[in-house]
Structures are given as structure tokens and as C-alpha cells.
Amino acid sequence: MNDEGYLRPVVLHKLQRSENARIEALCPGARVEHGPNAVPRDPLWGPLVRSRTGAATDGAVRRQGSSGGVISALAIFLLESKKVDFVAQIAASTSDPLANELQLSYSAEDVLRAAGSRYGPSAPLRQMRELLGSGKRFAFVGKPCDVAALRRYMQTDPAISQQIPYLLSFICAGVPSLEGTHKVIEKLGADRTQLASFRYRGDGWPGMARAVQQDGQVFEMDYSTSWGTILNRHLQFRCKICPDGTGEFADVTCADAWYGKDGYPDFAERDGRSMVLSRSEAGEALVREAVAAGAITVEDLGVGEIAKMQPYQAERKKMVLGRVMATRLALGFAPRYRRLGLWRSSLMVSPLAWLKNAGGTYRRIHRSLKTT
Predict the structure, then answer these.
(1) What is the pLDDT of residues 61-117, one digit of tens each?
(2) Of all helices (H) and strands (E), which one includes residue 31?
(3) Do residues 220 and 197 share a domain?
(4) Which residues constitute the domain of residue 354?
């Protein structure tokens, strides 16, 4: 964890050229691309076999999840149907309420402990060699960038795909720094040195940010305030030029299927509802099997309705080509993106808006360079 509250790799020795080449080939910070034979891709939403809305049928799972609990319900279904030995997913640290750690879930109780969003730095791939060395089959739940990295890694060895048959992801607006979490706790009026637990949301939809101190005091803040006015101001720059906030490389991606109000998502508390995007044949089969087993309920969703539920993601995909071009112009380098539909997406917005967005990125980079 660096001084700004982001997780960063530590260089232990000078890297050889071959090591650098391997990092650049696998890391989504350097390269993100679909293969030429991927499932037919929507320019905004990536590979799509079928789009739906849905929810977990178990009331506790639905309530504890950040939306309709479908990711948690799928994880529990995979465990109880013996399709995997465990699920690798992020949960709150058992030693530090503000930290995230990789949890290996073997039961429904484990999955429920990890339910709910964790809007802070996490590194779920750091133990991947150890997990693969176990020889056990497992499902992986991670941010879109985590899944993109793991998918590329799986392509280097077909045996890995057999060991990790399912990759699950969620729609992500970016990773806030730990400093963002500190600001939320400060706004709540809680003492972060005395916390017994902290959750960003969940236990309802969208649920409250909730800090519980060791003396029993409880502090809460609604989602619109915690995310909308604090956390989203602390996103790392790479997230702002991300072409894949929607988990395009997963087998199944889930998200908040927000109800609309005046053209914007309505964050009023109600029973949770997930968006469920199956992106591969394996993912579609999993969703169908979970429905047949009674783990989740679903309804078809027209692709044109996705942008109404996730307008931020639609706008970001339309603008990201301009942002990454501005980054390359300002810094001399930028991540390389291929087969992500960025040119087609950029044509969905007016040229003036696109240029203004790109120009804003360029100016922000230059201001940042002047202050460092």
C-alpha cells in the first residue's frame, strides 16, 4: 500500500527483458484485447450470449449482496452442486476491517461473509500460483481487470482453464484509494482506529455504508453520498481510461440493475435486482442450470435497456478512446486496446463532446505532472 492508498507492486530485483515482456503480455494495465474468435461483441457491452435481470431466490443472499445477490447465489450453487471445490473471492480482512483479502469460500456461509461490494484496493491474483498448485478446481470472482488478466494467463496453458472453469465478474466504476475510505469514515464521524467492522454497502439495495465501533456505536451513510460524493473522487487514473468496466472477459458479469428516474438511476432502497450478462457458452449454461436448480430467478433484458440501468458505463465506453489517445499524447505511452469496439463506441457520441472529454484528460495529466 503506497502513501496515496493504492496497492502497487514492489520491484525486488531488476527485471530481465523476458520478464518485462511477459508482464506486458499479461497485465491489463499494459494490454487489453479480445481474441479474433470471441463471442459476437456489442460495441458497448462486449461479448453477449444473453442479457437478463434477476435475483437470488434465498432472501438472505439477496439482501446481503450489493444488488440482487446473483454472484453470491451462483457461487453457492457451484459449491453445492460440486462443480468446484472452492470459490476464490475478495472479502473484508479478518484482522483489519478496512483491508481486503482473498478468501477461499467452501460453503454458503463463507460466500455470505464475502457478499457486498468492497470499494477499496484488492489484489485477488497475488496467490494464484499457490491456488493453481493445490490441484483443486475453483471459480474466481474479481474485478474486470483481474478477470482480464487471468483470462490471458489461462490462454498460456489450457490446463489452467480446466482448473478454473468459471470466471465471474461485476460492473466496476473504478477502484478508490484507501484514502477515500478514510474520508467516508471521517464524514461519518467514526474513529477508524476503533472499528469492529465496516461495509461499503449491501444488507439492502443499494444498502448503507456502515461503520461499527468496538464500543457498539453504529454510523451509517447512504450510497448516493458515500459513492457519489466521496469515493468516486479518489479513483486511480488507470480506471479513468479503462475500456472494460463491464467484465467483458468473464463467463458471467453481474451488476446493479438500477430502476430509472428522470433518465438517471434511482437509488431508493428496495429489494435488490441484478443485471445478469452471460458472456460465454459456459456462462450461459451456468445461468440456465442455476435457474433450473432454483438458485436464481431471471427475466430477459433487451440489450438496449442496459444503458438505462448503467448510463455511466455506456458513457465511459464511448469516451475511452479519446481519453487513451490523450494519455498517449501527454505521456508518450498508454495501454494498448484491441477488438474492444472502441471506434464504433466513439461514433455514438457527438465529435464535440468526444474532443472535449479527450481535452479534459490531456489537461488533467499536464496539471498532475506540474505538481509532482
Answers:
(1) 999 998 999 999 999 999 999 999 999 999 999 999 999 999 999 999 999 999 999
(2) strand 31-33
(3) yes
(4) 315-371
